[in-house]
Amino acid sequence: MRLKNAILGLGLVAILGGTAVITPKASAQDTTSDSARRKVRVKVTPEYPDLARQMNVTGKVKIEATIAADGHVLNTHVIGGSPLLVNAAMDALKKWRFEPAPKETSEVVEFTFNGQAN
Asked: Which residue segments constitute the domains of the chain, with CATH numbers given?
């Protein structure tokens, strides 16, 4: 059954491979409450994965990040989202830089991947 699903998925990718006309777009939004929120100094937009674009996959990815006192991302933990989109969102979030703070904090960031043109 898994082999059949894999073959169907690859067939779908092959069929849809040349039909992508719209450049997909990804965006991010910090969903932490304002009182505990650290401001973002550097925000990197995730690259829309080719396979996700070919398969017309859209949706949201929610990631919790641990932010060091100096503002760099220490680690990330996926809360939810399509497996085809998660790695792109995590790679982008690891490049973010936040304002310094007295101690380590945790932030939840939501990335939205949609098929709209930039």
From this structure: 2-114 (3.30.2420.10)
How far apart are the C-alpha atoms of 115 and 32, rounded to whole Å? 26
Alpha carbon distance 104, 53 (integer Å) = 36
Say if residue 15's pLDDT is above 50: no
Give residue 37's pLDDT band: very low, low, confident or very high (50, 70, 90). confident
